[in-house]
Design a protein that fits this description.
5 helices; Aminopeptidase; ten-stranded mixed β-sheet; alpha+beta
Length: about 170
């Protein structure tokens, strides 16, 4: 399963793709038939292992965890993102995203975010998509505003300090 946007093929990672990613860029490159941007992830291997563990616990959550954005014209992995699990009983899913520094400021994070949002809303159970950012204006807050999200809450997190919660409701 994948999401196609103008510049990106956003691939849903199953357990096999995640295992390849955890083993390293060379193995992942061969598995997907792509090249890989050296600094493609700041989330790191820990996030991939977490997603893999969740999928191994429940394969029915496939499509609700990690996605890899492949830049179509370069055939290159340039980031990661996705959802933090299947929709809640209230119909909420949370998204996250990152784009490698070399590919930033080209609208690709916005494109990826819109692809993830549209994909989530294809599921009739999903009523809203949320995201969290650091509690200050930054590139992520700009992406969310461009995608129509509204800041709905400020949270004081013991580890990260001020966090802003964002939401986009189904129209």
């Amino acid at each position: 399963m994948s999401i196609e946007t103008e510049n990106l093929m956003i691939i849903s990672c199953d357990s096999e793709i995640l295992k390849s990613a955890i083993q390293g860029n060379e193995i992942l490159s061969k598995k997907l038939g792509i090249t890989i941007q050296d600094d493609w992830t700041e989330f790191g291997i820990g996030a991939l292992k977490y997603s893999l563990d969740r999928l191994l616990e429940n394969e029915q959550e496939n499509g609700w965890w990690t996605y890899f954005p492949i830049h179509k014209s370069d055939n290159k992995l340039i980031g990661s993102g996705g959802y933090k699990g299947k929709p809640t009983t209230e119909g909420t899913v949370e998204i996250g995203y990152e784009i490698a520094p070399t590919y930033r400021n080209r609208g690709l994070a916005t494109e990826m975010t819109m692809g993830l949002v549209e994909n989530a809303f294809r599921n009739e159970k999903v009523k809203s998509v949320i995201a969290h950012t650091l509690g200050q204006e930054n590139p992520s807050t700009k992406v969310l505003l461009k995608c129509g999200f509204k800041k709905i809450q400020e949270i004081n997190d013991t580890d990260d300090g001020l966090i802003w919660k964002w939401e986009l409701r189904r129209k």
